[in-house]
Amino acid sequence: MMEPYKLTLSEAADLIRAKRLSPVELIRSCLDRIEKVEPKVLAWARITPEETLAEAERLERLLQAGTSLGPLHGIPIGVKDIFYTAGLATEAGTKILKGFVPSFDATVVKRLREAGAILLGKTTTTEFAYFDPAATRNPWNLDHTPGGSSSGSAAAVSAEMCLGAFGSQTAGSIIRPAAYCGVVGLKPTYGRVSRYGILPFAWTLDHPGPFAKTVRDIAILLEGIAGPDPLDASTTFAPRLTLLASLDAPPSGLIVGVPDRYFPERSDPSVASAFKEVLKVLEGLGMRIREVTLPESFEAGVEAGRLIMHVEGAAAHLDRFKARGAEYSPKLKALIEAGMLVPGVSYLRAQQVRAVAIQAMRGLFQEIDLLATPATPTPAPEGLRSTGDPVFNLPFTTFGLPALTVPMGFSPAGLPVGLQLIGRPFEEALVFRAGQVYESATEWHTRRPPL
Fold first, then answer.
1. For a surface tag, which of 151, 255, 297, 317 has the fewest beta carbons within 10 Å of its beta carbon?
2. Residues with catalytic annotation?
3. CB within 8 A of 221, min separation 6: which ones?
């Protein structure tokens, strides 16, 4: 058998369930992999090898006694260092929270543990999940950014240090790094996943979500943690997920919309070329490709989202910033200072504009089943002073729509580029069906960085 760290999450789950792979073997393999490649990639804020092995041994004993907690039983996972972890520091990539140890788990972490997942440690984040970069490098080329703010989660999965990871997106912080690092990432529908116990940035924009090697892996992770949470009122209306049962349904006849503007003029040649090939593949798989006109309110809605992020970011940090503003990094400091200057009436007006755009997008989805765009305008930029441009992701974060990225090729320089598929609210299952059938028809997701 191949080295266990090379397995996909679903492959490892099947082997563990069949008792052909033990959780201890899998964890040891991942820890050995971390020891080998982490000094190059710098994806982890902290790891806990002793605690991790002890948990793997406990879960192994459960299996031997005939008890399985489900498809995540014994699976090694990383979580972004803004997710509260009881007894383990949560520092959000900033010296301002140095040494902060929560007394409880975020709901996502709690549900992962209950499902049998093993927390390897905390993955790096840009400071407070904004644009000031972490030290993390792109596994495909260490001189390029892995994206952000969920830098470590994307890089750790890409470098095969864990089989899945969780991050968050307020603009483009899941889809962008997943695309840059050549892995699958999901920004769920707003309200699909609880935000309780996750350091907030912008309350009406924050979306927790998973990274993994395949669409099936993402579906397993999402099904394990999604659902209503009385501690987060935004989730109380979310319907129950049944993803795996419908994942393999044929996508024939699905109507896939391709936007008439905004995305084409911003895509560089390598991204545009790869996306053109994607559309041919989807059409060959029985889907109907249709150019669609984005609503007139689309761009105004996106700009409203930017203003909302500034104001809500300033509000989230207001007390801490008043006390320790000099310690903030430059980009986040600038956002907070700008957000504090926005009048309340402008914020409310932005929410109104956003609501109009959301309604218009729902009208568009009466004509189509899915929207397809590139995940990013370019491959991962060179250098580590920027995490790249979230311009292709911010619209769907602002509108709260589910967005999935899967690898769709490589640039001439050998850097991954990603496809972005967007669906109606709470229709992750349909997005997954299209993403998986595209994945099955191509081999981009099977490639791994030369580490």
1. 255
2. 80, 149, 173
3. 9, 72, 164, 166, 210, 212
DSSP string, 290-324: EEEPPPTTHHHHHHHHHHHHHHHHHHHHHHHHHHH
Please write the tens of the pLDDT for every residue from 210-255: 999 999 999 999 999 999 999 999 997 766 677 887 788 888 899 9
Count of domains forming the chain:
2
Residue 285 contacts residue 437 (beta carbons within 8 Å)? yes
> Are 121 and 185 part of one and the same domain?
yes
CB-based contacts of 97: which residues, under 8 Å, 6+ apart? 90, 91
Torsion-angle region of residue 67: left (phi > 0), alpha (psi -120 to 50) or beta? beta
Q: Within this chain, do residues 307 and 231 fall inside the same structural domain, yes or no?
A: no
pLDDT of residue 240: 65
160's torsion region: left (phi>0), alpha (psi -120 to 50) or beta? Answer: left
CATH number at residue 39: 3.90.1300.10
Give the predicted TM-score (pTM) of the model.
0.98
Q: Which residue among 189, 220, 250 closes a domain? A: 250
The separation between CA 359 and the C-alpha centre of its own chain, rounded to angstroms, equals 25
Low-confidence ranges of the chain (pLDDT < 70): 1, 238-240
Q: Are 71 and 173 contained in the same domain? A: yes
Write down the pLDDT at residue 238. 64
Cα–Cα dist 232/236, whole Å: 7
